[in-house]
């Protein structure tokens, strides 16, 4: 019997597992199951170039249709997996069919966190994660005059920056006291708040949405819990995501803010792995604590790790350096490492400019580096963190210190 690898989730992580298996000459059956009607596509452009009509739908596709036929990757679109029978290694689909698998990969991703306030379902209220959402939002955005964004995270600010380019007035509501507070240090948040405000973006911090105001079935504005009313003909909700764990729960796999996996990205069932936005794993960059990362890098590298194990190679712990990016108008944010729980920051470069880096430390140990428009610092940071190189706060702040040379020496096994 030919071994079957069933991959649930046709986003980047799922696609990469399938692609790497075929690149590495896996001879079994590969089935890629996605609940959207589209073939796998790239999500990052949806909140930027695609909204501005500089990117069409063909350009966001990961591969043309012929790729899947040539590689013998079976793509089941508009199909949802509904249950897993671990004892018999069977995956049930919503169309009534059942797939017998040798290995099952859960790449089911995450979904938008809902905000159930009065008016949340009005015409003109949007989320932004899927292609269909982006398509509808783009049509509305090109006709809008005033937009309100609920949530000052990556997606909200990327959308807001795109809207400003189209001459749409934008107000951003945020429950925290600064933008991207869950992801960024206070110094880097300050850079983005300042620069976005210069561009005309209006922030309202320390507040939250009370209700959406209706005008004949369409959104006409919002009211905050403080009683402020802002007119709007478009509202984007961007308050984070929830990992899709329901399928894993049907067969009693452990859930820990995601599908819990070990250092090799395997669940408690050796025939089931999880990758990407849905996977919660022990990270060496978080002192072994379980984390769940939402990034292109994480999806891609985890997919390669799992594919290698399925191919029978000596399993290696997942240890890729986490890195992230967000393009917001003229600001390119890049983050290397995991900066949560830092207790000290030092800035390299001028924080009053649009080109600087913030190094985040805990008890003198470098955790991560946030950069804006400083790609060289970012690349050096990835090498420093990946090699667990000692770097002092004083060295980080001193621009005469050659970070690239220290990273190269560490990679070569020298003592910098």
Task: Report what the structure shows.
This protein is of the alpha/beta class. The protein folds into 3 domains: 4-111 and 242-310, FAD/NAD(P)-binding domain, CATH 3.50.50.60; 125-239, FAD/NAD(P)-binding domain (3-Layer(bba) Sandwich); 330-414, 2-Layer Sandwich (Enolase-like, domain 1), CATH 3.30.390.30. The protein is 25% helix and 28% strand. The protein has 11 helices and 26 strands. It has helices spanning 12-23, 57-60, 65-71, 131-141, 154-165, 186-198, 246-249, 296-310, 375-386, 393-397, 403-411, and strands at residues 4-8, 29-33, 73-76, 81-85, 90-93, 98-100, 103-106, 110-112, 125-126, 146-150, 169-173, 202-204, 209-215, 218-224, 229-231, 234-237, 241-243, 259-260, 272-274, 279-282, 290-291, 323-328, 331-337, 344-349, 356-362, 365-372. The chain has a 5-stranded parallel β-sheet with strand order 3-2-1-7-19. The chain has a 5-stranded parallel β-sheet with strand order 9-16-10-11-12, with helices on one face. Strands 22-23-26-25-24 form a 5-stranded antiparallel β-sheet, with helices on both faces. Strand 22 (323-328) and strand 23 (331-337) form a beta hairpin. Helix 9 (375-386) packs parallel to helix 11. The radius of gyration is 22 Å and the shape is globular. The chain starts with a strand and ends in a 5-residue tail after the last helix. The mean pLDDT is 95.
